[in-house]
């Protein structure tokens, strides 16, 4: 996995340095050069050496254009809705509730103790050998269980551990939803959620629609 991801939000490029666990933007002049170099690319990766070359005043941007490693973004659907059953009306198996609670608490502890790149690498490697489409019942159960656990743990500041837990449990069941990290500017903000096609699974669409994806696993 590349350590340096970027996305374009309007005319600004925003970067996520996974190993340093930080977001940053370029000064205006460098930002203009970078946006010009990536053309129509909305999201991708770039090596630290490539970015350093731009910062040191690379005059020939044509060479830079050919070296930017672009992630497959067009194949990933833009979020348009959410899977939000009424958690009070969905009967949740007690065992699943326990699994979700343990997964959320474990993920919260791991986020505090482990570097971001390690956590995301585990997500990238943990794909079912034979993925299968999720059933509506499984989606209802998972969504309902997570909403009930979130009432106890709270949502603020927990989007990353809750999404990690959602993806881990889903993939243990043989399903492959995607973990999405998105950013916005003016004011700056970052958010994390789980998505299957255009459907947001562990959050409301209204909460994620203002964020531009910068990393998808």
UniProtKB/TrEMBL annotation:
Domain of life: Bacteria
Cross-referenced Pfam families: Transglut_core3
InterPro entries to which the protein is assigned, alphabetical: McjB-like (IPR053521), McjB_C (IPR032708)
Domain Microcin J25-processing protein McjB C-terminal: 102-215
Protein name as catalogued: Transglutaminase-like superfamily protein
Source species taxonomy: Bacteria, Pseudomonadati, Pseudomonadota, Alphaproteobacteria, Sphingomonadales
